[in-house]
Amino acid sequence: MCTPQEFEDAVAGAKxxxxxxxxxxxxxxxxxxxxxxxxxxxxxxxxxxxxxxxxGKTISxxxxxxxxxxxxxxxxxxxxxxxxxHCVHNVARGVDTMAIREPLGVTAGICPFNFPAMxxxxxxxxxxxxxNSMVLKPSEKDPGATMMLAEMATEAGLPPGVLQVVxxxxxxxxxxxxxxxxxxxxxxxxxxxGKHIYSRACANGKRAQVNMGAKNHAVVLPDADPEATAKAxxxxxxxxAGQRCMAIGVIVTVTGGDMGVxxxxxxxxxxxxxxxxxxxxxxxxxxVGPLISPEAKQRALAIVEKSVGSEGAKLALDRRTVxxxxxxxxGNFFGPTIITDVTPDMTCYREEIFAxxxxxxxxxxxxxxxxxxxxxxxxxxCGIFTSSGSAARHFVANVDVGQVGVxxxxxxxxxxxxxxxxxxxxxxxxxxxxxxxxxxxxxxxTVTSNWKFSASDGMSGLHGxxxxxx
Length: 470
Ligand code: NAD
Prior knowledge:
Layout (H helix, E strand, L loop, with lengths): L3 H18 L4 H17 L1 H12 L3 H18 L2 H4 L3 E7 L2 E9 L2 E5 L7 H12 L3 E5 L6 H13 L6 E3 L4 H9 L3 E7 L2 H13 L3 E5 L4 E5 L5 H13 L9 E7 L4 H17 L18 H16 L4 E5 L18 E4 L6 H4 L6 E7 L2 H10 L2 E2 L1 E5 L3 H10 L4 E4 L15 E2 L2 E2 L6 H7 L1 E9 L9 H10 L1
Nicotinamide-adenine-dinucleotide binds next to helix 8 and helix 9.
């Protein structure tokens, strides 16, 4: 936990570093990113092991965490192209105007617990590649990966101060939002913190990009490939113990009035969910690790209990209180759980559970499904499973969600695009990474120059030589 003085020192260090770093040639910044990419690759096993130990996700999920972050470092390696501005020659006689992309100065990043490598890597490499410094606050629950990445950044040649890691929780976040030196805040986390940070940072004149919670729906049409769809949904709903902002939290089965369509899908999903091994990440056979904390487990249990107990939902698979052998019997384990007969008023539909518990809602038509999705306050991700191209196209054209998958359960795009969560899942104008990410960390300066040419221009030196000889 950093003290107010340590925070001030960190911001002062970032300010000093930003003043120099912005003038470092873009090719040199690019070389730092290339070296960072190499170091992360060389140390990815160590990083993944550390994440798994600290956060509890399986080694393969931890590798995914590192890999998805590494992709943004690779984007940052193209710092030259990312820094391109534009120019119009001869806007008037002898006059040219160019727009130069410039860094903002000191930026800040605030991270959640669930992707301790990926989310910091969404932030500081692109900020640094475009000439900024960054004050970065990892989640207080798992700061280890950020510390390893910061060491690698230093080894890669990032000058002291360009990345300043600060530790803490609410007080440090508020100090970031209030500090006049910090020009922009990148945040990824839950709704309460996100809304607070967006309004506080904006009130203080900062740019903000704020990714928040989600309730991602997967719509399944009757013509979807049953095996592939159930497998994809099991991975997206139960993988990473459901602690993904892009986890599938709701499956919408389009039945056309035949509930057998829903039942067959739920049966397959239940078989898959039942076959997953719940346990500690230290066991190579584990598919579903623990939740982050006892509070997270209690919260998930309470949501499911309320939905089933007093609100009328049913359970098609109930592994909420999966029993493990000591010493893991007291762990935060919560196994794959499928809640059916869910309606939009129920708690399990309204809340982000952030555990491997998925709600199943049955509707009659594809348009009913689209209306359901569009009425949900969140807009992070969604998917449709079908073998009909025209049905998929109709869905894509009419659904109001930032990231859409067609037979793809977790449609996070590669970083030549941006992470385009929308509506209640995102506050701000410029999304993370891709072209929007570059725009977020830079601002344009336009320069208009007047250089009218006459025949004697450039010849004054010659004239001077001639004069001395005569
Ligand atoms: P969180 O909101 O509890 O914490 C995120 C960060 O905000 C932490 O650094 C924390 O210290 C700080 N914080 C928390 N409450 C605060 C407050 N009241 N005031 C000031 N700062 C505060 O989130 P989490 O539990 O770490 O992460 C899980 C959440 O993040 C989920 O809702 C998930 O959907 C979301 N998430 C979203 C995305 C996305 O891209 N949309 C990605 C990952 C996680």
